Amino acid sequence: MPIFMPVIIEKEDDFFTARSYGYGRCKGIGRSDEDAIKNLQEEINLYNQSCINSEKKLRIEKMVNNIFPKNCF
Predict the structure, then answer these.
(1) CA proximity to 27, closest of 16, 60, 63, 61
(2) Which end of the chain has the lower number of beta carbons within 10 A, N or C?
């Protein structure tokens, strides 16, 4: 299901910058507002994928620590 978030688009010189308050560190830059939004979407997708991978890694580490406690060796 798509999630709709407000996007702020600013124009500076010949470039557009797209940002969203929900993803403070993500921004998209492009020569048109459409390009900036497309680049913002890619940044958000990369950020989300990074969070998912980090969460998976933490879950695996927790499982391993439960199976092999550090104090058993």
Answers:
(1) 16
(2) N
Q: What is the layout of strands, in order, in the sheet containing 8-12?
A: 8-12, 15-20, 23-30
pLDDT in tens, 32-49: 999 999 999 999 999 888
The pTM assigned to this predicted structure is: 0.71
Residue 33: which residues within 8 A CB-CB, separation 6 or more?
9, 11, 16, 18
Quote the pLDDT of residue 32: 96
Reduce the DSSP state of residue 22 to 3 states and report it: coil
CA distance 50 to 44: 10
